[in-house]
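STRUCTURE:
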């Protein structure tokens, strides 16, 4: 029986995928990929050169004419087959995520499901890209519209969702008739090659989907390549802003989703058990490494104390450990560097004067191998504190107390981020006013993580989204297509004979 590379002490290499096959790079730079639960090196990933990106773009450009002219039903059938293959291999994909990112298996599987729903949505592409028609807009004149592919598209995706976020991009892009280049995070890159293999098995022609691994060299090469027509990005706000500015200056269509500081507003009439369950799951699930994680709690009026009474036992009961153990609630953070960054924020919050109610720095799990940090809860934070203002991206909840509902709305609206927010209340009038007046892109009412399903669209406001189109749903279809409108008039021809008059409406 053949031994696995890992068993022989050989570290596997995560390479590029160009023109339908693994493509070796001439790069002499590699990044290390770690098992986040043990801290052990499990792979190395190539840091692509500009030449690698050039080869991927050339392959995508060459494949574009044939793929864009492929009947839309055939493109849809590739998506149907891809759905079948992902469902077949989802346990394997979840294990990849659990090892490299640290998500607990059930959480990893859930993220696959949310990506799979976009694949399902893309299966309906024949209907989604239908145009419109009006006959007789003038005498003998008809007008119709069609949606056509943009061209070569690229997706630059983050470490926190190595399966889901790419699936928010490439299924719709490809189904719309574009070709695609994926640049995944170098911290957990293995899923990207799995997508390439499954798409090839599903019947996608070579060159339609390509993968370039790497860091800022690959990113900037994509942004500066004139052959790339559209760029989708998910990541931190500083990088999102760079991607948006650079790609826009180079004439590209851009959707760049940035950071977040998602608030959960708790009114005194809320079901406190429900609110506490929501906060524990949305705040500490995936170790807080979600762009839709709840990281700020706004306790209105007298809600803080009864909420804490319900919340603290639930935090204490959290089971933390390796992602491969499906009985755990929360796994490690992605890297040692990121764990240390999150821990430094806890230090900062304490120095700023926020009350450390639960201290993740002292949790027993921190003595384990791997990049673990326990859950942290701050209380009595102020709006000018860094732990409230900045995106921490870790298992840290920060509670701010306000007296009135209006203060809560003002607090949320004044924050620079506007990704997601939720309100917990039994008051329908308050919920309606909150939903209508809050300056945030995605709103939950008694729902802690209001991520829209695939047939709607995902996107924040303010400094959480650069560009004017959200991701997936009909916004995604519009992003990956261009509208063409045709106005036609056919001469009467042989029925009438020659006509020498000036044609008019």
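SEQUENCE:
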């Amino acid at each position: 029986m053949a031994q696995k590379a890992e068993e022989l002490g050989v570290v596997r290499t995560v390479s590029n995928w160009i023109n339908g096959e693994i493509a070796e790079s001439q790069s002499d730079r590699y990044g290390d990929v770690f098992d986040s639960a043990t801290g052990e090196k499990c792979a190395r990933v190539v840091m692509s050169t500009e030449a690698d990106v050039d080869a991927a773009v050339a392959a995508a450009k060459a494949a574009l004419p044939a793929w864009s002219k492929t009947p839309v039903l055939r493109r849809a059938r590739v998506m149907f087959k891809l759905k079948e293959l992902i469902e077949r291999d989802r346990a394997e994909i979840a294990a990849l995520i659990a090892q490299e990112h640290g998500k607990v298996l059930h959480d990893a599987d859930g993220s696959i499901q949310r990506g799979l729903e976009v694949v399902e949505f893309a299966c309906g592409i024949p209907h989604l890209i239908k145009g419109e028609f009006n006959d007789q807009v003038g005498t003998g004149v008809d007008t119709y519209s069609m949606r056509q592919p943009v061209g070569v598209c690229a997706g630059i995706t983050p470490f926190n969702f190595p399966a889901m976020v790419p699936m928010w991009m490439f299924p719709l892009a490809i189904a719309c008739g574009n070709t695609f280049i994926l640049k995944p995070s170098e911290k957990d890159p293995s899923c990207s090659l799995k997508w390439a293999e499954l798409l090839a098995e599903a019947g996608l022609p070579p060159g339609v989907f390509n993968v370039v691994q790497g860091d800022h060299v690959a990113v900037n090469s994509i942004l500066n390549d004139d052959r790339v027509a559209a760029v989708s990005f998910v990541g931190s706000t500083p990088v999102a802003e760079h991607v948006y500015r650079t790609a826009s200056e180079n004439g590209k269509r851009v959707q760049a989703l940035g950071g977040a500081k998602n608030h959960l507003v708790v009114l005194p009439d809320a079901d406190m058990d429900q609110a506490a369950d929501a906060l524990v799951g949305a705040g500490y699930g995936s170790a807080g490494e979600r762009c839709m994680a709840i990281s700020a709690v706004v306790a209105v009026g007298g809600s803080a104390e009864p909420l804490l009474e319900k919340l603290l036992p639930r935090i204490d009961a959290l089971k933390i450990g390796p992602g491969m153990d499906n009985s755990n609630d929360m796994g490690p953070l992605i890297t040692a560097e990121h764990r240390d960054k999150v821990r430094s924020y806890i230090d900062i919050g304490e120095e700023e004067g926020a009350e450390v109610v639960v201290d993740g720095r002292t949790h027993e799990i921190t003595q384990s191998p791997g990049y673990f940090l326990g859950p942290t809860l701050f209380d009595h934070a102020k709006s000018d504190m860094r732990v409230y203002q900045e995106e921490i991206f870790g298992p840290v909840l920060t509670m701010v107390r306000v007296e009135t509902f209006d203060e809560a709305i003002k607090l949320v609206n004044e924050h620079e981020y506007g990704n997601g927010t939720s309100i917990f209340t039994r008051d329908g009038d308050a919920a309606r006013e909150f939903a209508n007046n809050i300056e945030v892109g995605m709103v939950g009412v008694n729902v802690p993580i209001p991520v829209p399903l695939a047939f709607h669209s995902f996107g924040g406001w303010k400094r959480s989204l650069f560009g004017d189109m959200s991701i997936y749903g009909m916004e995604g279809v519009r992003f990956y297509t261009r509208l063409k409108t045709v106005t036609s008039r056919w001469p009467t021809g042989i029925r009438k004979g020659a006509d020498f008059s000036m044609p008019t409406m």
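REMARK: The radius of gyration is 25 Å.
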